[in-house]
Amino acid sequence: xxxxxxxxxxxxxxxxxxxxxxxxxxxxxxxxxxxxxxxxxxxxxxxxxxxxxxxxxxxxxxxxxxxxxxxxxxxxxxxxxxxxxxxxxxxxxxxxxxxxxxxxxxxxxxxxxxxxxxxxxxxxxxxxxxxxxxxxxxxxxxxxxxxxxxxxxxxxxxxxxxxxxxxxxxxxxxxxxxx
Length: 179
Hints:
Blueprint (H helix, E strand, L loop, with lengths): L2 H58 L2 H12 L6 H26 L5 H15 L2 H9 L4 H17 L6 H4 L11
């Protein structure tokens, strides 16, 4: 075997090793992308459900907030102006969390069944008399009001079988005597 043949053999061997390395690298990158996608979906799920859990924990941990929330769901109009503002803020917080969940679902990182569960939860809140009063009291430019109304209607259409939260959890609405 002469020097040229050895050089060609080494060149062919190098091309073979390079091709195997490219295939191995592509497989590695594909596995990494898949793991990243799974992690992104898990993070989106945790963020979406965490937003709602945080909202309810915030209310449950503060008796005054809970009382305001409970009274607001019964009748928004009966609340004092400061409590109306607080109720309004809580409602917007829930709806913004839901809108962020819609965007995550549209991007394919939040499963649609989770979005439907969140929508059902919101429907149970929006069906309460006070939430209906709150919705009628919303102000703002007509375009924004139309956008919010479309969101409310979509939530209520999907959640038409959902019971109002005060019927789902009646023990929360029982007046407790305080000593």
